[in-house]
Queue: 4 jobs
Job 1
Amino acid sequence: MIVTKPNGTKVELTVNQTMNAGQIEWFKAGSGTFYFYFILFFLCK
Amino acid sequence: MNSAAGPWLKYRGHLDNISNNLLIGAINSENNQANKIFNRLTKQYGGVPDVARDYKKNKISWIVIGDENYGEGSSREHAALEVRHLGGKVVLVKSFARIHETNLKKQGVLPLTFNDPKDYDKIDPADSISIVGLNELAPGKVIQFSLLLFFSFFFNFVKKFFNYNHYHSPLK
């Protein structure tokens, strides 16, 4: 993660996430409704 | 109106109305006041839901920077839904209350914690935040440059403490 100060200075920070593989798929799809269409897209492919 | 719900009674019904309760009891670290944050578009202070709506209207994503035990007392799904509804993409805190963190995941908001809690003090309300590299998101992976969804964003962000009861703190 990059934090940009008003004077243009950049600070790099490390952050943690706790999602499992299924939750990451869900997140990448954009949560519920989008996940449904995401699955539907691959089923219809 | 007399009700057991008191001043919170008006935050009911549909999501857009409920979202008028977004973080309104959180204390802004910039001025130690609740529901008063700087709108970087209008250069004026406004309520949290109002500023969030203005950012959303102008297609500016924002994130919440929070302290320890963020979301304690906000186990209702709407607490996470409000963030999503008003354009919040990420909640970055020192630590989460468990149920609220899960609800954020359900609603498609990315919950993150500082690898080093002291980094909290390196972020100020006037800063912009860029998160790149989320395509490489993997279970348990520490993110150094993470990418949000499919493109990178610059976030205006709202820095606030959240060690209070979101839905039941007294209104000013």
Note: Chain B is about 20% helix and 25% strand.
Job 2
Amino acid sequence: MNPSLPFFVLATLSVFSALMVVLSRKPVHSVLYLIFCFFTIGGHYLLLNAQFLFAVHIIVYAGAIMVLFLFTLMFINMNKELEPHKSNLLKGAATIAAGCLLLVLVAATKGAETLPAISKTSDIGTVSNLGKALYGQYLLPFELISILLLTAMVGAVMLGKKDVE
Amino acid sequence: MFSLEKLVSIIQAWLQSTLRDPWAYVVVCVMVGVAAIALFAILGLMLVYMERKVAAHMQIRLGPNRVGPMGLFQTTADTLKLVMKEGLTPDGADKFLFNLAPFMVMIAAMLILAPIAFAKNFQIWDISIGVLYVAAVSSVAVIGILMAGWSSNNKYSLLGAMRSAAQIVSYELSAGLSILAIVILSGSLKISDIINSQADGWWIIKGHIPVIIAFIVFIIAVTAETNRAPFDLAEAESELTAGFHTEYSGMKFALFFLAEYINIFIGCAIGATIFLGGWMPFHIGNWEAFNHVMDFIPSSLWFIGKTVFLIFLIMWFRWTFPRLRVDQLLNLEWKYLLPISMVNLLVVTLMAIMGWHL
């Protein structure tokens, strides 16, 4: 068996589900495809032997954030009639803007150096190694991110409060 | 002495001597799958029977007592009835998602079975992230419940699914934090390491008060996560007919029903594993004779016994506490349990650093 076969199966599935997120007509289906996409990306983590990253990815994205997405989408219950109609000018502008973003992203990744693949037996993704890297080498960025998250949380609570003067 | 470990090694040795390499592996996989499904069926039947008997005796009734000796076959008869029933799909439903949802919930429940140690060295997959894997997979069940509620095209189902999901997502936090307390004490996420760290005493005994607090929080969270009374708002009959599975009938309903009981079992099995020592027998200090008697009891019986005790505890809750309101439910989690378990986690960390535990 080709050793990169699992990768290609997973990659095909993730690209397919990512496309279906954009192409499916019902918003709830989009979110479900997005969840599926996250699972396939989690599978890629598993292939790299980063089990901790896989678990956290599933807990945070599939288990928490996407559930909130589903919540809101199920309650606003979008219909064809209620869908706001955009003019052709706006549609064209959106296409060009998205195309430009794609161009920038492709241009940015083109110049990037190719890293050698991590061997499947390496334990670089285990919890203890990840913890040592986060609290040793990358301590400052890690703590800064936690402050950023705390600020975002306080901001969300402030916005969510009804009776703010 | 009966031991599942010996049984497995005999079967494995026999398979490896008779079959060539990839096939022995395939046969082992099939056997594990069949065993898991059989376990599910037996668990479902026994837990429903146990629930009805426990409920009956708490209310000074007899419970099922007509079908078979002491009503043992009552649940089998009920299952047969459900299998015979027509599985309706409502007209306005999203057909694909409606039919997929029960399997999603069931598969999520089945996947959690993998890292649970049923006896000494008897485990399907001793993954290195053990308890995190359990948390990750159990959060997937929420998606199945939301899918069921939304695709039924019924407002009771949708409201039930929303309540159920909100409850599971929020109580998962305190369940996770109380599991983390033990992870800090034992220094590993791996289930087998956590059990081995309890060889000289279960965590609930040698972890002092902080672990007892974590255990209580965990039991409350498991009760809430499995949508059981007093947290059964998701299927409050008087308000929502039957919650997210209102529109389901026949075997698809049975799958939800089964998944619910399997989730109770899994929650209690995890609780028994991390707080009560899994398959570790009960030992008291230097009482050699007593310890030897305890060692003689098979490890599988220890595990099943602890798990059934926790399940009984959860069934007991149902007939002890009245149902909470939605706001009380969310207040309990976010204003009491979560802060308590966070502070508790800090205390446990301090305990682990200073080496205050036994």
Note: Chain A touches chain B at residues 26, 28, 32, 35, 51-52, 54-56, 58-59, 62-64, 66-67, 70-71, 74-75, 126-127 (CB under 8 Å).
Job 3
Amino acid sequence: MTDGGLTFGGALFMGASWTAIVVLLVFCFARIRGRR
Amino acid sequence: MTTQRQREIWNTKVGLVFALAGNAVGLGNLLRFPTQAAQNGGGAFMIPYFVALILMGIPLMWVELAIGRRGGVHGYGTTPGMFGTLWKHPAARYLGAFGVLIPTGLVLYYTYIVSWCLGFSVFSAAGTYFGEVTREGMGTFLGGYLGTDRNPHFSGLGAAYFFFVVTVVLNVWILSRGVVRGLELLAKVAMPVLMALGLVLVARVLTLEPMAHGQSDWTVANGLGFIWNPDLSSLASAKVWLAAAGQVFFTLSLGFGAIQTYASYIRAKQDLALTGLATTAINETVEVIIGGTLAIPAAVVFFGLAGTREIAEGGAFSLGFMSLPVVFQQLPAGEFFGCLWFLLLFVAGITSSVAMSQPMMAFLQDEFEVSRRKAAVLVGVGMFVLSQPVLLFMKQGFLDELDYWIGTFGLVVMALVEIVLFAWVFGMDRAWEEITRGAQVKLPRLYYYVIKYVTPAFLLVILVVWGYQDAFGVLVMDGVPEAFRPYKWGARVLLLGLLAAIMFGVYRRWRGQPMEAEEHVHAD
């Protein structure tokens, strides 16, 4: 834990995690809607 | 049983995914997750969390979906029948009784907590607690509401009972409408509403300006840094790994018995792999993106990092019901944002409380041919009556005792039992065929080995370490005041009584029936 704001590494980790989750969400719903 | 009644089936794929997501998304995503993250060092928590999600959470989700769909094909909506199809031994059905006990035990206190969210959304809109501008003041307000403290706002448990009854009636009404017109319709409405509420609140938190208390480091960026700045030293901490694994369990509703029941309403050849991934993706959106951005960063802006750590040490209720209301009071239109926050919790909670009630509904409907409406009323009355000690003996730790054995220890035991039955007794080749049948995405073969070896080993380690660290102390009531012990014993007797009743039900239902009689498959 750090008290010095969001570091570059933290921003990268957060951005990568958010992106991975959103990409998974979009991928899943694209497949679900495509084959309904 | 050779004659089976027609069971309901989810109407649409999107409805199924929303219903499963509604099952998984709950108070754990918005309250428990930020609290656990803050208690375990913020950035130190997230790496073990994602590892546990990939190696344990997602595989277990597929396992539970596969066990549930297989059970539904055989006409079973709960784990006693389902386990009987995996292991041809009478003991399997009695082990399955835990899959009815856990969600039923959980719902006894979970529904009560969900009702607090409804109450606090009304109190926020009406500004009832406005004026209680410290955490101590809000703690007294909450204590007054729960009857554990005296204050000028509440003279007894009247308000708590009112919102509890409203929540129970709402549960019964949704359950009585059945799978498609009740659970699926609720999910189709609730999930988009939940996302919208969450995103409005996220936008509000991300635009919070530092407050004028002269603390330049009390900012949203510091709050996000607290959660996200990675700390690799955590990888060596058993405590953090256990907390992360426990959170993954709770957030995905694994080991509850509720995912299996929802999966029993899936068609025999319908996809599970993509369904499980989509459910996980929605759950993680609400947990990591929404849950991770709301409570902690907002608390850091108003209380600073040290204050936020202290709040988190006080637990999820300290964060959600005592600290954030103090924050709302300092925001323009705080009544509105406070109402949105508690409505968000309520919507997340109600979709989970109906899911926890559904296994008992299915047990009554499928195994004892009780009509849907009658089962819903029985579940509602049972929920209300058996919850009474939770309401009346809150201060004495009745809820905490139930939560430990059911909501913490029980989940891991149940998950270990089901994965051993599925991957080892039923056999991993057949299990893999069950999971991948009808799959709309190709699962990596690596997961065959993960499910067979890694996930059970992960669960076994959690169980052994928890048992060593906590369970024995809780069992012998280490540090529990003498005056509270009878109430803790009362919680145990309630759980054992409930388990005995469910096991008696299993005995009555399958008395004298050979295991071979179960293979009358109704595929569609």
Note: The two ends of chain A are 45 Å apart (CA to CA).
Job 4
Amino acid sequence: METQATFKIWRTHPGGDGTFQTFKTTVTEGMVVLDVVHKIQAEQAPDLAVRWNCKAGKCGSCSAEINGNPRLMCMTRMNELDTWEQITVEPMRTFPPIKDLVTDVSWNFRVKKGIKKFKPRPADQPDGTWRVAQRDVDRVQEFRKCIECFLCQDVCHVLREHNKHDEFIGPRFLVYAANLEMNPIDSDDRIPDLKEQHGIGYCNITKCCTKVCPEHIHITDNAIIPLKERVVSRYYDPVTRILRMFK
Amino acid sequence: MEVVPVTIGSRGFASTSRRDWWWVTPLAIFIGLSSFVGYSTWAAFQNAHYAFGPYLSPFYAPEIWGDSPHAWFGPKPGFIPDWVPFSPALLILPFPALFRFTCYYYRGAYYKSFWLDPPACAVGEPRTGYRGEQSFPLVMQNIHRYFMWIAVIFLLLLSYDVWLALWFPAPGGGETFGIGVGTIVLAVNVVLLSCYTLGCHVMRHIVGGSYDEVSKHPVCDRAYACSTALNYKHQLFAWCSLFSVGFADIYIRLCSMGIWTDLRLL
């Protein structure tokens, strides 16, 4: 069944600023927002810039803000949206715009380079392998589901509203750090960096990152808060510090 | 950390493209928490109608000094001057209150609802400056683990109060075993408080979360699994236990005032 829909899509101007442009189009059953954007691109605005790749919610390319909510365009079904109202599609507001719906997310890749890499402990076995319990692996396996769509970075108010890009690495890289720090084989220590350089204290646990994660990673509960607690044990808890001296 | 400054300016307070009723949840939390704080403060200063038969309001438990038969050391001691407002609850309530105030769930909730930092996800904030929990005063929230231990002690004391709530005055003197609606109200309260406290993020960290290989510590492994299971419903238990504490006080208060009748089930 075809229905009419009105889309307001963010278009950038050559000067760098932008405005919404309105498009009327028809949508059919089973379409997602990315399909509609592609339809508009094919029929009405061939110069409309949109980044996409897999169309299956696994590449993390088509992140945008749909009706103000950070979401993947390819995973937002049209029947979830009210087509009686105009549907807005904007680029992620936390990152500098390049063109239309495409933003420059390269800051994230530079941040990633600043986190200590995986450093395995000496092998457990003569053949150079390790023995690890499955449930210890399961704990960090959740973090490896991340597709780096950067929706969590987009919605995090520390970056979005307060522009703490030079002091705070954001939820995506706290998950990355948790994946390494809680890895049963890893032997490096990232706690001092998390406190001093990565600004974990800036997170005030509003859980917006968890809410927008398309992979349903429990970012706040399973990654950020456990890291915060490790920082507390190391730097803020005098009893733990004394106990550590006797160990 | 190598970075390139990104300059996307704030669009102002409450600015958003969201169409949903994003303000409903923070408003509901504001009303819920304000109502509880208002009621509990009022109840704490009443210093009356906090005990009924074998029941003692959780706001006043443990009653260290006070006028009810539940008091550990009798009436108000002489070293507390008359001009100081006294109520047994004032000696107790600061501890569970600070446990909840520093709780990770409540922090996230009241930062949004009371401080609007942010009012809701992807909604503009009223202030441009931000220090988070990186520095004073909010870095003090890290004291949460100490209040968690105090909360565990309170759980034991409230559990003992449930035991006492099973023993009613006998007609011929002495005590007799029984169960009233109030006993069940107090017992459910302890269960909900336990689910909230034992599923706390700090508890989860202390019992096993600090280990990368918790499986090598069998007791911690089991405790971590239990705490994690409760932690997934931490928000639910935070609200249910808050409601049950308030309701337990209301129940005992209204029974004590003769407005409600406590039914004996056994």
Note: The first strand of chain B starts at residue 51 and ends at 52.
